[in-house]
Specification:
Helix content is 37%, strand content 22%. By secondary structure, the protein is of the alpha+beta class. The relative contact order is 0.11. The structure holds glycyl-adenosine-5'-phosphate.
């Protein structure tokens, strides 16, 4: 598991270093929206570039060793709203949500207890119970209710009406001494003012007030196009990039003459009006996805599903995520969507959660999406695929090689489906921001190293894989004299066209190292007295602190080898 990190401290570190800022911070921020600073934008770009390079331009061979055909797309964020009716998002893309009658805030019903566990008032109140047994002292709770509770949870029943609430709680606890209430039941008791009228109530994580019934809350963000704002001009900001791929499936086939199996990839912004954005950038309202829709013959779909599931997990490991922190979770049969033959969530053990959380979903979507668009667009013929290769391979088994003529012989449906069918789709769908957050969490390390005088000091370092590191190398002149700055600048300029490198001639070398360790720069290259005599430099490794002496002419190859070992 990654080392537990204090997320507030971590978010501050990310801000101070220029990885991630709160959006519109000077106006108080906006919930669920984030900006990437100078280091963060490089990190996220490296992640997206690595995905594009490894999945679209240079995917590894398929399950039978065959080349994989992949192409990319870049679709508009706003599409014809009929797309979202066909995909089912307009009708069903909603989360169960409960409204607080005290402060009016909404909370996701299916995540209530996890959100409550993080709430300020709950964390304060829990200190007043005896750990493990959950026993309590009425006077202590009364004191909390009249003190801290007034400020933290003004609408909690325990705060509004402590005598009555505590009397109900005592009746429950004393009435069944052999079955003490769970923490959840205890929480419901202190949230209930009129037990007989309402039954046990669930409290609001914000103010403690009672929550109403769960109702579906659409996640679709709306806007309008044109001059008039009415139902006709209503449009949606896409909640996933996938639908742009499905609606362009025929265009891609026609313009590229690709044959099955093949994949179409797209990365870009998606928007969801999340009820409870939380855990830093983990659940945002604006985020980027990296999605592949891989189209194949239905008979081969399970093989391709397994291929993508395994490949995608491996990809994260090749970029430095430890295998033990990556947990693929195959959904149980009763969790699957009706059209799916399998879905695996590749989960990551984020340090803010006790449970692993989804990084990417790899889903077998069957022919659901293409069939929906075939039916809704009225262009079914555009979505049927004729597999010419399979047809020609079986030529010897028929008297005619004309599919049309053969169809007149009324062949059985299963025989036709071998040649003409709606492709099945395997969808590996990853989040660029979620993976960026995972990479930041995974890289964050605190250790102790000796300073220039041998005194041990604490340092924070970001152990990014060199391929993802925002800055690949920093170049320092040891001192600002004897031609060292000029030599260092020369090396910097020769590396700059190839890598994101940084020149730093300010302050003591030790301090320059620390700054780069915090930025996650894998190599610090120093020009010293010896450089002037033999054209060699020292290259310091961020993680091991080992210094190699390398010829200036070999520095580029040294960095390249670290980026793409093997
Ligand atoms: N087309 C399938 C699809 O969109 P999803 O599981 O809803 O599936 C795929 O989303 C990925 O997108 C997730 O695994 C996650 O990495 C990312 N994602 C989804 N909602 C997100 C949010 N609110 N904030 C950040 N990333 C999100």
């Amino acid at each position: 598991m990654p080392t537990k990190i204090d997320m507030a401290k971590f978010a501050k570190f990310c801000k101070d270093m220029g990885f991630i800022y709160q959006s519109s911070e000077i106006y108080g921020g906006i919930n669920g929206f984030w900006d990437y600073g100078p280091l963060g934008v490089e990190l996220k770009k490296n992640i997206k570039d690595a995905w594009w390079q490894d999945m679209v331009r240079n995917p590894p061979p398929g399950p039978d060793g065959q080349e994989i055909r992949m192409v990319g797309l870049d679709c508009s964020i706003i599409m014809n709203p009929k797309v979202w009716v066909a995909s089912g998002h307009v009708g069903t893309f909603a989360d169960p949500t409960r409204k607080c009658s005290g402060c009016g805030r909404f909370v996701r019903a299916d995540q209530l207890w996890a959100i409550l566990a993080e709430s300020t008032w709950m964390n304060s109140l829990i200190q007043e119970f005896e750990p493990v047994t959950g026993k309590y002292d009425t006077r202590v709770l009364m004191k909390w209710a009249k003190g801290k509770g007034q400020k933290l949870a003004p609408n909690l029943a325990l705060v509004r009406n402590p005598e009555v609430t505590l009397a109900f709680l005592a009746t429950r606890v004393n009435g069944q001494p052999d079955a003490p209430p769970t923490l959840q039941e205890m929480t419901q008791h202190i949230a209930t003012e009129q037990l007989n009228a309402t039954g046990l109530q669930d409290p609001c994580p914000n103010c403690g007030g009672p929550l109403g019934e769960a109702k579906p809350f659409t996640l679709m963000l709306e806007s309008h196009t044109g001059m008039e704002k009415n139902e006709e001009s209503k449009v949606y900001l896409r909640p996933e990039t996938a639908q742009g791929i499905f609606v362009n499936y025929r265009n891609v086939l026609d313009s590229t003459r690709l044959k099955l199996p093949f994949g179409i990839a797209q990365s870009g912004k998606s928007f969801r009006n999340e009820v409870t954005p939380r855990n830093f950038t983990f659940r945002s309202r604006e985020f980027e996805q990296m999605e592949i829709e891989f189209f194949c013959h239905p008979d081969e779909s399970v093989k391709w599903y397994e291929y993508w599931r395994d490949l995608r997990k491996k990809w994260y490991s090749t970029l430095g995520v430890k295998s033990e922190n990556l947990i693929p979770r195959e959904q149980a049969a009763d969790e699957l969507a009706f059209y799916s033959k399998g879905t695996t969530d590749i989960e990551y053990m984020f340090p803010f959660s006790e449970e692993p959380q989804e990084l990417e979903g790899v889903a077998h979507r069957g022919d659901y999406d293409l069939t929906q668009h075939a039916n809704h667009s009225g262009m079914a013929e555009k979505f049927a695929y004729f597999d010419e290769d399979r047809w020609n391979a079986d030529a010897a088994t028929r008297t005619t090689n004309s599919f049309k003529e053969w169809m007149k012989t009324n062949p059985p449906a299963e025989a036709v489906a071998k040649y003409q069918f709606t492709p099945h789709v395997i969808e590996p769908s990853a989040g660029a921001d979620r993976f960026t957050l995972a990479v930041l969490c995974e890289a964050y390390t605190e250790d102790e190293v000796p300073d220039a005088n041998g005194k041990v000091e604490k340092r924070v370092l970001m152990k990014f894989h060199p391929r993802l590191a925002p800055i690949k190398a920093a170049i320092f002149p040891l001192v600002n004299k004897d031609g060292m700055p000029e030599k260092a600048m020369g090396l910097y300029r020769s590396l700059k066209p190839h890598f994101n490198v940084f020149f730093d001639d300010k302050g003591a070398v030790g301090r320059r190292y620390r700054r780069q360790d915090e930025a996650g720069t894998p190599f610090c290259i120093t020009i010293d007295g010896q450089t002037l005599t033999d054209d060699t430099v020292t290259i310091r490794d961020r993680d091991t602190l080992k210094q190699d002496r390398v010829k200036i002419a070999d520095v580029k190859a040294f960095i390249e080898k670290a980026l793409f070992p093997g």
